[in-house]
Write a structure and sequence with these properties.
This protein has helices spanning about 10-20, 30-55, 65-75, 80-85, 90-105, 135-145. By secondary structure, it is an all-alpha fold. InterPro entries: CBFA_NFYB_domain, Histone-fold, Transc_fact_NFYB/HAP3.
């Protein structure tokens, strides 16, 4: 029996990230965490599949951080790619996303015969290195969709 949570990002991590971004007194329902978990997982799969296709066309077997940045740009998420290039270490994220994608392609459970580092998300930063307000961040994100 396949657990429907297999292949999704850990819900505890998703909830923790949501709490870090939202105002301190905000309440987050279980359903909201589940929807965000599904959306974030789908987004990572979407970007990773694009990066994997590029690697396949170039006869490479390993997706790296540069491939993830390229995929973000190719899919119209230029601001995410630029933020990533500006200082975030994509090796861990790229390796984790590639491992999840490759494991699913091979019919494996995540972690089964693969060693993957923990996935980490970071907040976007403005050009001056400060974090945007929730309203500014919402505007940044909605302009990229």
């Amino acid at each position: 029996m396949v657990d429907e949570q297999d292949g999704l990002l850990p819900i505890a991590n998703v909830g923790r990230i949501m709490k870090q971004i939202l105002p301190q007194r905000a309440k987050i329902s279980k359903e909201a965490k589940q929807r965000m978990q599904e959306c974030a997982t789908e987004f990572l799969s979407f970007v990773t599949a694009e990066a994997s296709d590029k690697c396949h066309k170039e006869n490479r077997k390993t997706v790296n951080g540069d491939d993830i940045c390229w995929a973000l740009s190719a899919l119209g998420f230029d601001n995410y790619a630029q933020a990533t290039i500006r200082g975030q270490d994509m090796n861990d994220i790229g390796d984790r996303a590639a491992s999840i994608y490759m494991a699913s392609e091979q019919g494996l459970q995540v972690g089964e015969q693969t060693q993957t580092p923990d996935l980490e998300f970071r907040m976007l930063e403005k050009g001056d290195g400060t974090k945007p307000s929730v309203d500014q961040e919402h505007n940044l994100l909605s302009n990229n969709v």
